[in-house]
Amino acid sequence: MLDRLREDVRCVFGRDPAARNAFEVLTTYPGIHALLLHRMSHALWRHRMRWLARALAHLARWLTGIEIHPGAHIGRRFFIDHGMGVVIGETAEIGDDCTIYHGVTLGGTSWQHGKRHPTLDNNVVIGAGAKILGPIRIGEGARVGSNAVVLKDAPAGATVVGIPGRIIPPHGDEQHRRRQEMARRMGFDAYGTTQDMPDPVANAINSILDHLHTMDRRLEQTSHAVKEMGGEVDDSHIPEIDRSDIEGLEPQTEPEDHN
Asked: Would residue 102 show up in a list of annotated catalytic residues for this protein?
């Protein structure tokens, strides 16, 4: 038990830059408290002392704001950052070195007995407010964006965002290169808002960039066809979109009434 606790404390320093020393982590981090109490309640659950296990889990929820069913299986070096509002269901399974943030739900979608909660493989990171629902599997090293709602399996290494959850294509594909080129012309980097995961606004902009690219290509093909048929086409230069064209377009607000 003490070795596992030392592991849990050490893993906090690698994932939370606000952590300063072991005493602070042990005394002020609700994720550590919830995990320690869960290990105790899980041991009671396995020994079929079910009411006592549930009572201890209820106490942990009251103390930390984190609800973990005593039947859930949790691996080593599991880190719950902030923790408030986290819910982990009875048949959930969590691998080693996983991280979840506040407001995350590992929930079920059925009232039937048996496996009804998610399985997280090793090294999975779940962003704040995300909902992983049903007996699905999130593959090793996968990332789930904040507030995503995931209802289907995600392969290893995937990045899942949105409602419902969608897998973001790898950065090396042709579609991503087209987006980068269009974004460069507009003076905007669609992936600049986060280090490795676009937020919902970036996703919307990606869709706009894809649409603009398709429209440009079809317009060029249409113009070429019209020329071949002897029609006249305006060949004047189409100016590229520049950053200065979209600056200063913030919405106007009504002046405050101080009367």
From this structure: yes
Give me 254's structure tokens: 């009504």
The candidate with the shortest Cα–Cα distance to 154, out of 118, 200, 189, is: 118
Domains defined along the chain, listed by start: 2-167 (2.160.10.10), 174-232 (no CATH)
Q: Contact, 62 vs 73, CB < 8 A? A: no
Q: Which residues touch 226 (CB under 8 Å, ≥6 apart)?
A: 232, 233
Q: Is 158 helix (H, G, I), strand (E, B) or coil?
A: coil
The one catalytic residue in 102, 113, 176, 211 is 102
Q: Is 115 helix (H, G, I), strand (E, B) or coil?
A: coil
pLDDT in tens, 155-193: 888 888 888 888 876 655 566 666 556 555 555 444 333
